[in-house]
Every structure is written in structure tokens, then in C-alpha cells.
Please model this.
Amino acid sequence: MRWRDAAILRTLLLKLSTRRRLGEAMDRVPPARRFVRRFVAGPSAGDALAALARLNAQGLDGAVTYLGENVSTAAEAARAAGEYLELLDAIARRRLRAVPSLKLTHL
Model:
């Protein structure tokens, strides 16, 4: 894939990622779900923590992102910050080797 094509695809995917209903619909379509699950552990923090545990068992460290970046209100940013704090607590409780992947547009 050429650089320009990749840039266009990236822009399209980022734009589509802001459409919650589209993401939910994609999760119900088996081919799309298989593609997405290569990059997204699942819809819940529990799914992400389980994936991190599997990675750790294979000798790999992990990174976790709470999806929903590009927040537009202080309340959304506070909710995202709270989710990250809960993830950090869960990672520590389970003694997982993982770090959060933060995006400034999320906070």
C-alpha cells in the first residue's frame, strides 16, 4: 500500500472510530469482528485485562488504551481519566506487566 493510500485509510478509520453505533455494528459482523479483534481486546476492561494476562503469560508486556478519544466536554475527559485510574488499579492488583496508552485528545 502506498503512503498516500495508507494516509487516506488512516483518516477514514479515525473518522469512523468516532461513530459508536458503527463500532457496535461492526462487532456483530464476523469478518469485521475478526479484523477489529486483532487490535481491540473487547468492549470491556475485563476483556483488556484478560488479553494483557495472556500476553504476560507469553513473556510479553502490554499496553492498554481506553477507546473514546477526541472528547469534547470536561465531563467526558473526567470519565476517561476515571477509566484510566480504574485500569491502573486493576493492572496493579493483578500484577500485570502493562502500561496505559494515553492520548492527549482523550484527556
